[in-house]
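Researcher: Going back to the complex we discussed earlier. I've cleaned up the inputs and rechecked each line, so this should be the final set. Can you rerun the prediction on the complete assembly and write out the structure?
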Amino acid sequence: MEASSQQGCNEKAGAKSGLSILARPESTALVGTVVVFSFFAFFTGHAGFLTLPMTRNYLEVGAEIGIIAAPVTLLLVAGEFDLSVGANVALSQSILGYLMVYGGWPVADAFLAAILIASVVGAVNGILVVKTKLPSFIITLAMLFILRGIAQGGLRMLVGTTTIDGVRDHASEDRLSFLFASSIGPFSVSLVWWLVVTMLGAWVLEKTAFGNWIFATGGDRRAALQLGVPVQVVKVTLYIAVAVSTVFVAALDIFAINQSDANAATGREFEVVTAAVIGGALLTGGYGSPIGSFLGALLFGMVEQGFFFTPLPDVWFMTFLGVVLLLAVLVNNYTRLKALKPRRSGDIGRTLP
Amino acid sequence: MNVTKFYRDVAALRDVCLSVRCGEVVCLLGDNGAGKSTLIHILSGVEKPDLGTIRVGGIDVKLGSPAQARDRGIATVFQDLAVVPMMPVYRNFFLGREPTIGWGPFRRFNSKAAIAIAEKALRDFGVSSASVRLPIGTLSSGQRQGVAVARALHFGGRILILDEPTSALGVRQVEVVLGYVRRAKDAGVGVILVTHNVQHAYAIGDTFVVLFLGRHVGTFDKSNLTEAQLTRMMAGVI
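Model: Rerun complete. Updated structure for the full complex:
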């Protein structure tokens, strides 16, 4: 009798671990990415979707989103939101462009200056959120306008336009420009940054004590506080990390198109959140995966670039993306609820011998 | 080791006196508004008494914060248990006190050790859960209580305060939780069980402290008290 109930328990545990693989946050994004890739490969492969330049293109689009999506995922897991990332990319582009072209600064100095300013912006975001306890949605929305305005207004005052041309030409002599302008085999260096940032994000979230605090901060703030987790430090740190990631994207951008633009990356904040949500992150906090967000950004890139080859006019791209996002959210929600369902009450009586 | 605590003239409490020894279960009883919560908030360092003293092991102590109370070996398991439902059991077990390995920037959460220690601590305490890797939200409410108690004791709790641990549970779950209390008692821990359920208290308690509207009605030994008497006292009918 005892033995048989024990066995029953073990079998259930086995079934449960099978389900827990399905319930990983990134599983939907993995399936979605494979489906979308197969779709475009099958229907538009002959038109050029499978070519190397095309692959390079969608990986570049993915990197633009994914490098920011990784730290944003951690921020979402901690239960907060950042709408200012697009504007922050534009501001960082403007700072880098101005310092390098007009200031004659080397790449490294300009880059460090941009990182420093972004860190201040991130810290302001974070401190405002934790001190006012207002929704981060509103605070970072305000920051979106403020930063975009500073980028546009600042450049207009300094150089009379909102774009600065010839960034790459100016920096071509610089030893460090390879960090943002080179190719690794057939692919842009942005792919390397994207992979590195994703791995770092996943490592921090899953493998460090700080990652445990991130989960707890967004999962149950009260419990985290009771157990002595420095919730405010966690949030401010993540806001800084998000802001710093925008500088990397800005640097890659201005080298890729040889121009900095104060109007760049409009709407990037939503693309990033789209990638994170397709990747399994919950907007309510406590759940998400940088690896899922990587796949979400990859999927975003494939859809955006692949759509060009379909017979539909590319203006339908948004609708298609919206449907993908909706499907992903529905599937993620379903699997998560399934994974978190309390076990049947029949198991409970056996907790004591 | 002897543990004694005295309180005098606290705003919502007047001259309340409570003591707990190792391996003893003291039930703090009272109807809603009797001052039970105020008393345990003082004991767990959340609030400070206006007058009176707290003694642990015969020494006067000041409990300025929950962390200080924890350092003195006073572990409180509140009603919400302080667990994060979506996180695995072992991550909850070590939340805020994660074991780490590695050096400098490569220092990381030692999940292997955390899983092993949590599994052992829960097994020793009789909390059988399918896996410590499952989200704690998938456990039954009784098991979750067990994890919270085992965690409190693992991190050096010598005095365990349980705040209404049975209030939202079914009959079977109550048995499970009272089993955990019994285990803690057998392990030599002094337990303060806060409840307004006389049945549950009488089943497990050694000593009963009854509060009524902030006053200390009395402290009674189980040997000279019936369940019916206890119920009447809680209602204020002496």
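Model: Worth noting: DSSP finds eight helices and twelve strands in chain B.
Researcher: Good, that matches what I expected from the previous run.
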